[in-house]
């Protein structure tokens, strides 16, 4: 029986059947459309064990746990990641931080994804993808617009540090202007990290971040679930406010026929809306004053290429996730 922190952990039935985490990897856990709130776990100790911390954070609204344990042996990382997966189940994404040679096999055995350092180039990203498959999530840290512009093959970027933080003492932060430049250069959703809490999260959302990652705002508190819930509530408010600002309705409507067909009901970012019959994804974005270059769109669980926006017709019951990419290419 493994022990993590002060807690003994019994292996799950699946883990016992596999015998070890390197055998018979499970299917990739279904993932949410876009990550919004990530907890970086293991880079510094909290007030409770790492599995307890992960479980509390997910209960408070965290939708991704990144296991990051600099200097730890792969066996230790594997142990902690498995314990975290036991606690969070399928309620949140699991990501293992590190080079693909060590992180990807651990993540594959747990139905998770990987988070790669900025130095990981196209070859490393391809290596991780070869191990994990097309359905797994791969992220990469970036600290500059130049790095953000050459991150093909990943699903999201993590940009920071935005504000001064105990994790990077003495290192100059990106600041909001630097974050905005990263978002503009990026071709994938950007999560912001570094000194972000419920008070300042709206600032990073206003400059284009798709979500945030946290350490101290959750780890350093006596009640991590309550802290996560407060941060998630502030984050959701900020995202909603930005979406409403981006999607103010136009005063003109598009005429399709002399006798227009009944509108279609689709869901956009969790809200039911009506669109004109025959509209494409491009038409919907244009009605909200968004160019194709300004938005990342996921339709029914599949991320669309921008070249497809104009030829993809919307249908009754479609589920869209729209992320404002600010000036993204």
UniProtKB/TrEMBL annotation:
UniProt xrefs under Pfam families: ThiS (PF02597), TMP-TENI (PF02581)
Key words of the record: Thiamine biosynthesis
Stretch list, region Disordered: 1-25
InterPro entries: Aldolase_TIM (IPR013785), Beta-grasp_dom_sf (IPR012675), Mopterin_synth/thiamin_S_b (IPR016155), Thi_S (IPR010035), ThiamineP_synth_sf (IPR036206), ThiamineP_synth_TenI (IPR022998), ThiS/MoaD-like (IPR003749)
Ranges of residues in domain Thiamine phosphate synthase/TenI: 37-218
GO molecular function, one term: thiamine-phosphate diphosphorylase activity
Gene3D superfamilies reported in the protein's UniProt record: 3.10.20.30, Aldolase class I
Protein transport is among the record's keywords: no
One BP term from GO: thiamine biosynthetic process
Name of this protein: Thiamine phosphate synthase/TenI domain-containing protein
